[in-house]
Amino acid sequence: MGQNQYGKAENRVVRIVRDGATHHIKDLNVSVALSGDMDEVHYSGSNANVLPTDTTKNTVFAFAKEHGIASAERFGIHLARHFVTSQEPIHRARVRVEEYAWERIGTAGEGGHSFVRRGQETRLAQITYDGQEWEVVSGLKDLTVLNSTDSEFRGYAKDAYTTLEETRDRVLATSVFGRWRFNWTDDAQEMPDWETSYEETRQHLLQAFAETYSRSLQQTMYRMGARIIDHRGEIDEVRFSLPNSHHFLVDLKPFGLENDTADGAVYFAADRPYGLIEATVLRDGCEARIPADLTHP
Ligand SMILES: O=c1[nH]c(=O)c2[nH]c(=O)[nH]c2[nH]1
């Protein structure tokens, strides 16, 4: 018997808090994975150590009511602690959360109960607890960004199969899948403010994307990670997976039209294949722990 885990995946929990006529919404997709003393479950079929996945599902919904959802991370911490400390055979809990953002329609008060889904990105959080140490990895996916200039790609290695033309002015676009690991690992440490941390980290990432004069997506990506490490002391590791969403200049010569970047051009936005540029950026002295090929949930 090798590594094994079980739990209920993708519990879609929506919590509404009423503050008079102004309502607040948290919309999560929560996946629980438990592991521990489970060999017999697989060998003999004894379920004595198995807390049903149905129970883990119920716990997610009950905790949303009992404890509220201050943040995806806080909620995941509550759940992981509960499973590991209340069930002797469970030695480790991993809670993955996707959070969907809602934006108020109109002002709080009159339109205080009307929301429109904010489609920019999905927020991610993964909380792992083994009874002693915490690991919190937060992040986001599907945050699509584009620079319409200040991006070049030239001076690269060439061989017999190279046809790509060098460019000093291209569109740089990607859909950010980023994760970052916190150095909060112990209950004795002061917990970060998860909501502020998320908003600020997201902002640093966007700012670095916008402000970097790019010689490659690799360089831009490194700047995004380095800016987070420089400004957010609670984060030790950032991992990015960035598709290079190629925008090719269309050849319009057959129609007697020049299609030149300098005075605004027409591009073909190709969806595949795409370059896939990935890296981990680390604080000095820290080790990489976010698996390179981790996907969600
Ligand atoms: O930013 C880029 N990095 C690459 O490694 C690469 N390769 C390529 O064909 N275009 C690009 N662009």
Automatic annotation (TrEMBL):
Q: What class of enzyme is it?
A: oxidoreductase
Q: Which GO terms describe its biological process?
A: purine nucleobase metabolic process; urate catabolic process
The entry's protein name is Uricase
| Residues binding urate, per UniProt | T53, D54, F153, R170, Q218, N244
* A Pfam family reported for this protein in Swiss-Prot or TrEMBL: Uricase
| Amino acids binding O2 | T53, N244
Query: Could you tell me the superkingdom of the organism this chain comes from?
Result: Bacteria
Q: Where is the active site?
A: T53 (charge relay system), Q218 (charge relay system), H246 (charge relay system)
Q: Cite the source lineage.
A: Bacteria, Bacillati, Actinomycetota, Actinomycetes, Kitasatosporales
What this chain does, per the entry, is described as: Catalyzes the oxidation of uric acid to 5-hydroxyisourate, which is further processed to form (S)-allantoin.
Which pathway does it operate in?
Answer: Purine metabolism; urate degradation; (S)-allantoin from urate: step 1/3
Q: Which reaction does it catalyse?
A: urate + O2 + H2O = 5-hydroxyisourate + H2O2
Keyword annotations from UniProtKB, A to Z:
Oxidoreductase, Purine metabolism
Q: What EC number(s) does the entry state?
A: 1.7.3.3
Q: Which residues bind 5-hydroxyisourate?
A: T53, D54, F153, R170, Q218, N244
Q: Which family does it belong to?
A: Belongs to the uricase family.
